[in-house]
Amino acid sequence: MWALIEWTEIEASLDIVKRKDILQSVVHEGDVVDVKYEDESSPALILKMNENKDKLLKRLNRMESERRQKEECKLPEKRAIKRKIIFSPENTPSSSPDQVQIKRFKKRLLTDLELLPNRSANKHAVQTSLTSAACSAALQPANSSHLSSSGLDHVEIHKKLNMAKDTFQACGRGGTSWSAMIKDLAVAVFGRSMLATHSLSGKIGNANKESQAKPPLDPTKVELIIDTVSKKFPETPRKFLRAALREKLNDEHKLLSRHHKKDTVTLQH
DNA sequence: TGCGCACCTGGTGAAATAAG
DNA sequence: CTTATTTCACCAGGTGCGCA
Q1: Which locations, inside or outside the cell, does it occupy (predicted)?
Q2: Are the C-beta atoms of A241 and A178 separated by less than 8 Å?
């Protein structure tokens, strides 16, 4: 016996769960009830009951499809974050603890990024960067002894850099890649729009003297990011870290330019 | 003079996602 | 299920300044 639900604490997340996972003996459609979510429970709205799981699955897919169509007018980059956290009958929260942890972890990380400007793009960057494998790695304890923990869920890299511990641990494939770490930290600290419009030093590129110099990123924060990665990967030369950061700036700028070009072409037609 | 660096453009392949 | 599209990381190559 199954029920189609919508998690109320998870952004527009539909799900199909076993009846026994609903922690209430008497429930009706439209009720908000506690539903088992791994070792805990989470409130959810009962949308449909008393149908077999195939019917519920089709209903879920139809609802998802309708929601997608409503979102169609949004910017392309929103596509990635539209992906809801969905459990199939074969993959319920209780059947795959790691998956649940990974999804919850992603959710929290994306919530942190809400604070940054251009949050859709930031979210997408994290969504793409953090594959399941990456998140799994992120769930492992990170070697962050050089950092001062300012609370249960936050880590203070410096007075100027304070981010959620999960966010920090997720950077760099969970601390397994210095290049990914410095790029993820840059996105987390500056936001993608700033990366696309700023340069490392603020100096004009010698290869393109006619172009306009981009303003520099906050050098203090840049140094702090490099220091942070350097402490975690002491064998990696700082010039490599700067190169990776510069590359990230290049890529973000390139992507932004492409978007602008595409928008211009769309307006012309 | 050679090297390192900063900046830029363009290309490729992998992975994720959408569409048919 | 297959194909197309998008996004990203990574790489190559070019330019010219600063410095030893």
Answers
A1: Nucleus
A2: yes
Dihedral sign for Cα A148, A149, A150, A153, please: positive
pLDDT of A156-168, one tens digit each? 555 555 565 555 6
CA of A40 to C1' of B1 (A): 69
**For A169-187, what is the mean pLDDT?**
66
Residue A7 or residue A71, greater confidence: A7
Domains and CATH numbers, chain A: 1-95 (no CATH), 97-269 (1.10.10.2590)
The CA-based diameter of chain A, rounded to the nearest angstrom, is 73
pLDDT in tens, A104-113: 444 444 444 4
